[in-house]
Structure formats: structure tokens, C-alpha cells
From TrEMBL:
UniProt GO cellular component terms: cytosol
PANTHER family in the cross-refs: GLUTAMATE--TRNA LIGASE, GLUTAMYL-Q TRNA(ASP) SYNTHETASE
This protein's UniProt keywords: Aminoacyl-tRNA synthetase, ATP-binding, Ligase, Metal-binding, Nucleotide-binding, Protein biosynthesis, Zinc
Family designation: Belongs to the class-I aminoacyl-tRNA synthetase family.
PROSITE patterns associated with the record: AA_TRNA_LIGASE_I
Record-level GO BP terms: glutamyl-tRNA aminoacylation
Name of protein: Glutamyl-Q tRNA(Asp) synthetase
UniProt GO MF annotations: ATP binding; glutamate-tRNA ligase activity
Domain Glutamyl/glutaminyl-tRNA synthetase class Ib catalytic: 4-289
InterPro entries found in the cross-reference section: aa-tRNA-synth_I_CS (IPR001412), Glu/Gln-tRNA-synth (IPR000924), Glu/Gln-tRNA-synth_Ib_cat-dom (IPR020058), GluQ/Sye (IPR049940), Rossmann-like_a/b/a_fold (IPR014729)
Amino acid sequence: MTYRTRFAPSPTGPLHLGHAYSALLARDMAEAHRGKFLLRIEDIDQSRARPHWEAQIYDDLAWLGLTWPQPVMRQSDRLQFYNAALRKLWALGLLFHCTCNRRDIQEAASAPQEGGAPIMGPDGIVYPGTCRHRHSQDGAVPFPGNAALRLDMARAATMLSQPEALAFLETGQGPDGQTGHIRFTEEDLLTTIGDVVLCRRDMGTSYHLSVVLDDAAQGITHVVRGRDLFEASKIHVVLQRVLGLPVPTYHHHDLIRDAEGKRLAKRDDARAIAKYRDDGLRPEDIRAMVGL
Ligand code: GLU
Ligand code: ZN
């Protein structure tokens, strides 16, 4: 199998130093293994994606010296595949229709009988389970169009009872230094992640579902990305297992921080690659700044 990495930016703002690090590292790793480096545009959030940011991504990456095969995969072209996977999960009885808004979730999660502060997962408050009874009944109920759908994590975990299903190989590091063979349990999934949204009503998909389907479609063997997504990888492994997709190796890298140790936000335009370039810096200066 060819070693393949990817860089998967969202065209919702300028690329900054953190993106440059991620893209260059993914390319360097592919090159070191005589593999391929691919690009993917993650533009499912059409309320925030803009064509000029996409154009800027191509410009910035080319300036950094990166090349990638054409055509570039764009998530907005792949809604039919996301929908097909959702229908499959629905037929397996793994999804339920959720009508809660943010406030409902906050109130249910902080109700006195729940005890203590709500637990935060990769997508915010761990879902308190309000709509979990609204199941597909293993496909007996027709697939609801235009609805928010959540993964029933308990059912998914039950389906994955074989040992080794809840595991992946990490060649970088998680936030607590986790590396190597990472195992997680059903208990971890239920308490720290919960019933995540797989289909947003406004998108017809979600980051988690799309990233898993696209990494598989592009034949990605090594997912290189920031450490902030380490916990989300557990969701991705669950989805890969229930959908019968290969589980790639993960490499979660350091987050590039500013002088005060704060994470670089996307809107931190002062650190935009384009700004450094306008200031006369060279691509090799960017490499040096991110420690490559
Ligand atoms: N589009 C995501 C981001 O820009 C990429 C996440 C990933 O690499 O899995 O954060
Ligand atoms: Zn709900």
C-alpha cells in the first residue's frame, strides 16, 4: 500500500504558521517514505467557506513549495457519498434524530440530577441523551431528510465487541504524551465523547463523518494533523470500524503557539503566511520558524 498523507484545510480564513507546519510535515513524511502527499478542501460549512480563501490556500501552499495531484478533492462535491453513509448507519440502527438546540443540551446536561458540571467532549458538552429514544428501529423507520442525526455511541460500541477494535496506532503524541498503540474503552466513549452529531441539519454531514469517508476515499495511510484532534480520532476509529473502512495510522503533531504560549487562532491574520510573504520572508524562513 502506498504511503499517503494529506493536508485538509477549511477555506474559512488565511493559512497561518500552524497550517504551514502541518502541511510541510505531511509532505516531508510522505517524501521520506516515497509516498504521496494529497490536498483536500474541507468546505462543508458553506456558511463560512469562501472561494477567495480557497484560492489563497493554493497560492500559499505553492509558494511554500508544495505540490499535489489534481484534481483536488473538495467536500462540497461529495455530499452524495456522505448521504449514502448516513443511510447505511441509519439502516444499522446507529443513528437517531435529535431536535435539541444548544440551550436544551446545556440545560439537560447541567440539571441537578445529573450532578456537577457538564463533561466536555471533542464537540463541546457531552450529549445528555435527550432524544436517544428516537431511533430508526433498525431501519424500520424511513431515513429522515433535513434532520440533525446523532450517533448512538452505546450501540456502536456494542457492535464493536471484538478485541482490538477500539485502538489505533499513534506515531506522534496526544495531549498527555500518548503514543504508540492507543487503546480506548466503551466506557471512555460513553463518558467523554457520547452521541456526537454525524449530520448537521444545515450541512447534511459533519466534520467527523466527512473526514473519515474522505480519508478512506483518498487512500490516506497516515493522517498528520494537530494534537487538538487526538480525542476526535476515537470517534473516527469507531466510524471506520462500523463502516468497514481501514483505520489509518495517526500522527498528531505539536500546535504552533505564539510568544505568549497561546494557540494561533485562524483569525490571527498577523501570522498569516501571506503576511509573512508580503513582508519579504522566504519559504525557508517559514520552515525555520516552525522548526522544520
Ligand atoms: N479541516 C480540518 C481543519 O482545518 C482538518 C481536520 C483534519 O485534519 O482532520 O481543522
Ligand atoms: Zn436531542
